[in-house]
Specification:
This protein has helices at residues 3-13, 31-36, 51-58, 99-109, 151-154, 165-174, 197-210, 214-218; strands at 21-25, 43-48, 67-71, 84-90, 110-121, 127-128, 132-134, 137-139, 143-144, 178-185, 222-228. By secondary structure, the chain is an alpha/beta fold. The protein folds into two domains: 3-122 and 163-228, Vaccinia Virus protein VP39 (Rossmann fold, 3-Layer(aba) Sandwich); 124-160, no CATH class.
């Protein structure tokens, strides 16, 4: 299993939330969907708007009977009200065309008391992981200090949105959710291995301790927001 998948899903599973029926909204090729299905839920449904990605995701189904895939937009989910016990929105909110529409639909399909997990880019992290657009060209490697520029300057170059941690919490709360907690998602140096292997091994072993250091939490690559749909509206 991917180190990053294991780390991120561990943040949810460690809270005992992976049970019942979950939605992986914006599941891409289904790596997180398939991994979630092995960690306790009765059923995990992956939703993806790009059909080619969804076909690749379906190939990861190991016939556990706990996986299902649906092609749909995040702001038009084809599910009844109160279908899911939890929704994962992992590095997706920054890409959607309609933030409020996506969160409104997620709110609708969650049961009262159900959980929403959002992980999205943290503007305090000094590299823009999505790269940038520049004069008609796409740069796909992380760009230093771009997230720290004022939005009026950086916006024309960004390939995806990013959020200050407080900003992300306000967006989620503004959709009607109750914020339970917010924490950092640290980089695991899986895709971009800038450090020697022995340093990466030490770093990964030390991540639980690093996450307890306030300054380290501030500079996480993403922000983890755990929210809940109120029991009564």
């Amino acid at each position: 299993m991917s180190v990053n998948v294991d780390y991120r899903l561990g943040k949810i599973g460690g809270r005992g939330l992976l049970k019942g029926t979950w939605l992986d909204c914006g599941c891409a090729e289904g790596g997180y969907t398939a991994a979630m299905a092995t960690r306790g839920p009765d059923l995990v449904v992956g939703v993806e708007a790009v059909i080619d990605r969804l076909l690749n995701a379906a190939r990861l189904d190991t016939a556990t009977g706990r996986l299902s895939y649906v092609c749909a937009s995040s702001d038009e989910l084809p599910f009844a009200d109160g279908t899911f016990d939890g929704v994962l929105l992992n590095e997706v909110l920054e890409h959607v065309a309609n933030e409020s529409g996506t969160l409104s639909e997620i709110y609708r399909v969650l049961r009262p008391g159900g959980y929403l997990v959002v992980m999205s880019p943290n503007r305090w992290f000094p590299f823009e992981g999505h790269g940038m657009r520049l004069r008609g060209h796409t740069i796909t490697v992380p760009v230093p200090f771009l997230p720290w520029l004022p939005a009026t300057i950086s916006q024309p170059f960004l390939r995806a949105r990013n959020y200050w941690p407080g900003q992300l919490r306000r967006i989620v709360a503004g959709a009607g959710f109750r914020i339970i907690s917010s924490s950092a998602v640290l980089p695991v140096f899986q895709r971009f291995r800038w450090l020697p292997a022995f340093v990466v091994r030490w770093y990964r072993r030390s991540m639980p301790a690093i996450e307890r250091v306030p300054i380290a939490r501030s500079f996480g690559v993403s922000t983890f927001v755990l929210a809940q749909k109120p029991l009564t509206s």
